[in-house]
């Protein structure tokens, strides 16, 4: 099992260069970044679209995609390297490929009604037809569609008329071909172009689905026309409200015959049209940047129901996204808005799914990079902000908790190769470009404040702001120079190299020392305190150019370098020597990152698409990550969150990783309250080969220093601070804030960020009221550059909405009046008083809107119909809004009718919180699910969420702090954690793992049976086994033998099995235990709980004994019984995905399968009656770990349970080949300890 976990993904945006880069089919849609195709699919349970796959086989820019009209599982893509690929979406694999398209395919389309055929065209033709399969497989040329006089922009097959096709040209003309008719080339140019040489490219082209001859055409300057392809006439010319408007894309709305939509090219205005009118029915301004592509889903998502709901995701819309809802229809009341969902792609890379009927975004992915991301760095004073530099010419700053962009650099800088944050809190980023020199961007002010041009037009491959001296910046370039200058541009040093310089890095221990990587295969070290321009050291050994170099932050004089020879070399400056060569990558190495706490951990990223984590003490590769789909360029982590890593790639994504599993025993030492010597040490101790990992960095020392100052709550703070240090982003801080609230912490000690996350219900109304007041009085920020800086009107509107949901009706009315929306104010004013309503009527003036808005929300608030309003919000998936209303009602802010009671409101609140938690859980965010439960004091379900998400170490830390209310769950988690270390050496030798397991079990009261299981399972010599018995306070081997025999004579089967397992002859337990279980099963009133304790004990028999040939029969019986009872336990826990596999598992040891008889079916029903209630509340339902919903590019693994592709983390069984999902492995191990392969080996996926 992989040690490194993928925990987050920043998806790319849609490329704005080619036309056909957006496609949809049934419940999926796809768009193209430059080198990858992103496929989103509807999650039917929550009725929302989620990223399901990233296809990145293309090595050059993708030029077009097209979904197969006959098969929703298949689509085609083309790229600038003359490559055409046919994909199977469900299996995420290539079905066919055409490697030489004889020109770059500019447009691509499946041949309607022609089976498996794809047509493609480049520039001026010809049109090629590729039959993928069948007798006529191969490429042919369309007989007439060639020798055009103008380049082709795009083409479209007629969806009904077989063989009919239209081409749009850059000169504004159309060419139409259909079998049996005269071909028409370069016809129907806009009238204003006739007789001129001017060009007006066709930007969009779609056949009317209700006609065989009519066609919608958009030209860049001459707007939209409906033309008759038979009569070659213009039927309708559509008029725009402004002469400045121009159409970039258009699409028919399948659910509304005669209706179509268009997207403007300059501004993000979506227009709704009907063919019977020449002017638009409505206009929505969705963004400030123009449209690039549009596609309407054929089968829009059904309305959400109360039983299947999801919360409103905070879109964190950017400054280019309009916050106001679009206007309602006024003069066009005869028309209604079409029900439909439009996939919208914008020129800035933004992608969204817009619900035209509800006038809201169902999904918005704003401001993603559309090209290779070359570098990424965390902000020095904020581990939540990550900056990325891209080929697309921008630097973006992301909030990694919400995975959204919060700042983007102004303009386009060409290609940005490298970035470096200013030290501390200076809020500036230095960037290096391919042709435009280097620059300093003031992030908060949103402008470039300095530019450096000393390298001329040569590309600058690396820029590094000094960690220790904020006035110095280094750059290295293709001109062979590494230049050190001050931030005001004064050059301090110019170090000449014999070839291009690709990388440089400041020493973190000596402010005057810098290392460089050069094309001449050498690493150089320079000392700035001297006037010499010669290097102090030159390290040779690489067999190809050196790219990046990195100094170790923990070991003075140690640095590493990555090379095109595929190796990473470790150099010791003090010894003038290479002390290790890390070999394993099969392509050039680019990304390099030392861990800031564990001195021997080094991570590298390569053009072989992988990330490797190394133990540099002996050169061992600890883990390899295959999830990126292209070259890996940048790696980074933040010192205060040292085990969360970000990576960036040519696949245009940024991925977040947790390295904590590599050093998980360290956290166990913390929660088991071991001495500091087991947690923190010096680098000399940590670097001893085979030594257990120790923390040696600044963060761990700072934590210890702060703890030493405390006189109370030392254990609580220790658990929290180390847990936050080890945990990836995604809710751990939020979780600990809620734990503090539940434990009675003073509200004044809550951090400022608390109000932005999931709050405890007792704070929700108060914090939201404060937020509303702040929105009302705070003026708009004077500086731009930030994404999402709202106008005063937007702030007032946001404040009004919060006041409304809190039941503060009069304040809502006053704010709506200030905004000029009198109709809304008047509709709820009677909820204050009739007198107030009449007063508002007098102030109405002439500012009422032309059409009354039938908005249910104000009426429900005014009448106190809370349940209806909660149902209204939940049906729309707005669970956070429902939560506000339910809490407002609980606190009495909403005047509910006398018939409703506080108890009903409280139940409603609990129900909404549970729904919200389940949505987070199913989205792979177990920590935030736990936060939702803690917000209403439900510690049981909070702990259950962490357990089901396999956040075991975090669950123990939280459970220990919560105390008695979480004890039962904490003890269960401690048992699972002990199993983890009982059966796997991890980073520790086996004795260390054994002792860790014992320490964990000794934290549980009444732990004798649990310790007995540990002792039973531990293999070793007699003296070693006696030592562990003594450590656990249990009898010796010989004493256990005697106690077992005594228990047998007394008929005490449980103790007989227990002591036999710990004796020199553990196999004796098999005979006694299995005989007892079989006897129990023959009894008519047996239950699962009456036989499971013995089977559970037998599951800890030493593996080396169980797999012996002489115990084959007993082993088979044990595995059958374990699988049989495990299946019943799985049914009880609702582990539906593994129940069939468990039943199948028991059959592999039996006779051939025969269909069940009626009597057997009745017996099965009777079996279900033998299940008692699950002792731990909340554990029912499937496990779902972080990353389960994140697409991976690793080799596609098929589950040996289902035969289907595994989504999310994969768990390999002991043969190294068979695979199941990690979620299935966790559930299996909780109900049946033995591997599904029937070998008798225990499963350990924890």
Automatic annotation (TrEMBL):
UniProt cross-references to PROSITE patterns, sorted A to Z: WD_REPEATS_1, WD_REPEATS_2, WD_REPEATS_REGION
InterPro entries noted in UniProt: Quinoprotein_ADH-like_sf (IPR011047), TPR_GEMI5 (IPR056421), WD40/YVTN_repeat-like_dom_sf (IPR015943), WD40_PAC1 (IPR020472), WD40_repeat_CS (IPR019775), WD40_repeat_dom_sf (IPR036322), WD40_rpt (IPR001680)
Domain of life of the organism encoding this protein: Eukaryota
Bias (Polar residues) ranges: 305-322
WD repeat intervals: 55-97, 366-408, 539-581, 582-624
SUPFAM superfamilies attached to this UniProt entry: Quinoprotein alcohol dehydrogenase-like (SSF50998), WD40 repeat-like (SSF50978)
Keywords on record: Repeat, WD repeat
Name this polypeptide is given: Gem-associated protein 5 TPR domain-containing protein
Organism from which the protein derives: Oncorhynchus tshawytscha (Chinook salmon)
